[in-house]
Amino acid sequence: MRNSNRRALISVSDKTGLESLGKRLSALGIEILSTGGTSKYLRERNVPVMDVSKITGFPEIMDGRVKTLHPKIHGALLGKRDLPEHQKAMETHGIEPIDLVFVNLYPFSETIRKVGVTTDEAIEQIDIGGPSMVRSSAKNHAFVVVVTDPEDYDGILSSLERGEEITPERRRALALKAFRMTSDYDRMISDYFEGLSEPKETFPSRTEILLSREQTLRYGENPHQKAALYSYRGNPPAGIAGSRKIWGKEMSYNNFLDADAAFKLVWEFTEPAVVIVKHNNPCGVSLGQDAREAYQKARDTDPVSSFGGVVAVNRSVDRALAEEMAKIFLEVVAAPEFSPEAKEILMKKKDIRLLEVSTPEPSYDAVPEIRTISGGVLIQSPDRVVTDPASELRFEGSPLPTESQIRDALFAFSVAKHVKSNAIVLAKDGTTVGIGAGQMSRVDSVRLSGMKATRDTKGSILASDAFFPFRDGIDEAARLGVAGIIQPGGSIRDSEVFEAVREHHMFMILTGMRHFRH
Of 139, 177, 245, 343, which is the active-site residue? Predict the structure, then answer.
């Protein structure tokens, strides 16, 4: 019934490695069946190929929408070679088995990411025949090898060239990969149509998160916990998850958490900035004329906590900055890039990890924040705004702040947004002076910020992530010599708080926006 040579079906949108694939299959004496653009591509490169329409006896119709949906194709893919009744049906209907299938799908995800793409354009990139062939082949993987990823071409071809059979385990693994691909593809399409159906709904009625494992970690927060790093599937590499480690030991679970906290905060600022994080809280943040100055000021905010800290820089790390960093032990340094001289200096420290991190893409703001709870997850939009864009800053007390004090206030408030609540940040001249984090009462956070201060707190600006429920926090700030306070406002005791500000001859800036971080 069948030729002595095997047959391969190739129908791909992604032409990566296609010419080599075709030529190597042909050299093995394997007959190649193909469709439309794939067939044309191979023929132009002198690869012998037979159009699927010659097999089906039916031409491609409806602009290529219908070409492989035919019993002579799916029978060739689904027929079980060890069942006599299947063999008889194939002989009766003139169906030749297909042993190898190389298929990938129309680029639906790439299409819908294009600016201005229409619904009609998106719909035309919904593949029908491709997923059908993939599913048929994967279902019958005991007899059909299905390859959906160009990365797997060489391995399969090399085995065939050595005269090896593709093992059942390998066939099953390829089938699993194929089913995952069609599942992800259908999910992208359903998410797209759900977005069309619910354009005003921030959170759709159902959602599925596509993740790809990037690496398995040694352990989680503690040695008895297991952990792995995943990235959002289908999105370009971004943030800490998409960073490139150019030096050092493998990143730990806690390294990733701290690096992410530092990265998110440092990109609040357009000026040269450095953030040092310890245990997921910033212990030093500063702006500077250059990154070296910013680092020195951030480090000196809390030299004890900075030792063994995780650092993020929003500028390239050059020789001068690297020489400063090399003076103490640091766990991780994350930056857009490192100069050759900086690498030479920092790579002498065996325990440091160097990460090159791209600046946030525009889509960075749209990525939701996801937290697990028992039995489910919480999803929220990211906290990317510092003050209420719909209203002006309000001022209480006297004297009114100077322009430089307003800049320090907004700097401190930006930092407070990234500090565990209840958060209090003291700042002066674009540098943190003291940070009070994670206390159960706001007045204790004020006291802690003074206790952590290594510089004179007199004349500093105090930022609070949420309103002051009582005047006691203002009284404590006055004992520290604070010149002014920035806070959201909105307490039922605001009048008492404002009266305390006036009594202590401070100013107060009201932002109208809270920044709890639990």
Answer: 139
